[in-house]
Request: fold
Amino acid sequence: MTYDATFRVWRGDAGGGDLQTFTVAVNEGEVVLDVIHRLQATQVGDLAVRWNCKAGKCGSCSAEVNGRPRLMCMTRMSTFGEDETVTVTPMRTFPVIRDLVTDVSFNYTKAAQIPAFTPRPRDEDGNHRVQQVDVERSQEFRKCIECYLCQDTCHVIRDHEENKAVFAGPRFLIRLAELDMHPLDVRDRRGAAQDEFGLGYCNITKCCTEVCPEGIHLTDNGIIPLKERVVDRRYDPLTWLGSKIGRRPRQ
Amino acid sequence: MDLERHEYDVVVVGAGGAGLRAAIEASESGARTAVVCKSLLGKAHTVMAEGGIAAAMANLYPEDNWRVHFRDTMRGGKMLNHWRMAQLHAQEAPDRVRELEDWGALFDRTPDGLISQRDFGGHRYARLAHVGDRTGLELIRTLQQRTVALGIDVYMECTVTRLLTDADGITGAFGYWRESGRFVAWQAPSVVLATGGIGKSYKVTSNSWEYTGDGHSLALQAGATLVNMEFVQFHPTGMVWPPSVRGILVTESVRGDGGVLRNSAGNRFMFDYIPDFFRKETAETEEEADRWYDDKRNNRRPPELLPRDEVARAINSEVKAGRGTPHGGVFLDIASRRSAEYIRKRLPSMYHQFRELAEVDITAEAMEVGPTCHYVMGGVEVDPDTQAARVPGLFAAGEVAGGMHGSNRLGGNSLSDLLVFGRRAGLAAAEHALQRTGRIALDDDALADAGRAALAPFEREGGENPYTVQHDLQQTMHDLVGIIRTAPEVQQALERIAALRQRVADLSVEGHRQYNPGWHLALDLPHMLLVSECIAKAALEREESRGGHTRDDFPATDAEWARTNLVCSRAPDGSVALTRQPLPQMPHELAEIFEEVPA
Reply:
């Protein structure tokens, strides 16, 4: 069941690089990451790649396989023909560090700016009581493994470096949605979502939903409801009046 | 030497559950705190934990309390656990789970709106707080977000290669940035090791590349001791097919939620492997076992939910006897026992994992599973209350610490261990730092030496490739110090480890210092070898079978060994020295628990 595949892998660093072609053995049941590891072990010991769990749970091995943002550990070789060349390149939205490894610090910067979870007080016996149906909405977004493939595919930042200052990207819009829908959280982040994290830049093309390896419905279940809630708040005449007379300052 | 320098009160090495919980506590105690981790923040191995966090919250069974949890833990570890750690763990776990909710965690709920709890092997009551089968992700994300909210400094993709000490104890740590290969040193009176385990020394493992035993090795080299290193847990259910995913974990929740193990003849073989030690609390018939899921008061636990060491050995025996599956495992069947909807709801990650990686629909067909190296019970010998190692200023928490789990860890007790002892280590590390008066300084010669050692693989030419050496070590540990051991095989392993040490000393790496995985592996290999030597030496010394240590030539438990721990230390000539140490004596009021709680 073993065959020789042709792989084209981008090699280089911030100063530049190019696609290099390798012939490498592939065995039954393998995924793209296995083949990259074989290249490391047998041909290019210093080929840079991030990975951890190799089971689709940690979101480390994100890259673009034949131009599509994918987890390398969850991309089976059987989805390609044996004579098909497989091209592996680093995520384009982020600056290259080396080979397939990119500088994803943008995401950590945005994460640190999001107003932290703020819980309501516990019940008298020290427990929080919430119903399963109420935790499930936010749980969908907490499935996020932070692979940043949604950030990679989002055209607002993929080809527009200048938008990174004003737009947090889909991963952090659903983080805001998660907190907004969180049954125990009491903080209002709707103003921040619009003004600081660039919710308005999203024009719901749903590319992020398409590439999410966790199957999270980022657009339909997260971003669109958040947009609706922001609109409600902005056009709620009582809120508007309150902010004008200074009793309910904008948060 | 080009060296970036920092100064802190507490440096935490590792950003899994234990490391982040320690950092949170140290920071909240007023210590200037840094976390150093080999991967990006949020990717640590804790993310792989699936089933849940064991804590006697009594949300489903009011009969449950810390005493029952303590008893289950000690019996699961075949009574070799440090009693005080098992006690603190059982007492404090519920509060550690509740505080996660204050930091944003969203657990599955009971009908009353409380945190739901699920069944797991060795636990008398449904006790694991969980989020589907991705509890580890919830835990890491919650602690990560709390760490960020507190503004704790995190050095990501940064590897510690040395601990630095003076006559009074810890002075700091030395390491390199993966991204640039440049060196960095942290001056700190307290260092908390939270580096996880050793699984990458084995061929079939559920562990990631990070699990190279570096924390165990750093502690040993700094003058600390390791306890119980012979006890390595082989999780009974790893994937076996296709070969590239061999070893990836299949959560115990499959069995906790009703899944059963069958051999190629279709028999539920676990009924043939009930040891006397657990006979009184284990069901004798399939009917009783099946009733237990709904009525725990009047029925006993299914044998599929015996502790992991028992189940792993049973699977091993079935496969050896020729009753395995086509790919050398056994069948784990939940498809015929629970509805497709229930399976997808309770085990979404498993459903996804098998569908994507093995083209198996677990709601329609059985999984093929077999043992996989999962966890090391052994680790840094610590004070149970403070997690302090024998070197002043050095602390260890989580998998890298030893004693808590004895000879075998119960499922679900790892996540609670991380939280309980991560917090205690962070607290004690902060106290130690704030009390230590007088200046500490990093020794220039030690820094220069650490730098030279790190660059040595680049200096040599024509040596072996680090990947080949790692492969040979993994094969050695798999074949000779695996799930079943004998004296001649372990002796042979020690000879091979000695030969591998010479090969590591001679290997060379290509390329330059910037993000170079071959170089990183070359620096991990000495740690892997040192820890493998500890495991093999202790495995040879302990002439009995207990928990995660099975000797074919000494198949029974032994009364003398039941009172004895093995402690590894570093001899002056650099070799591993082994000493026997009596087990700490359990106080009377705890010993009584084993009589009062019905089996």
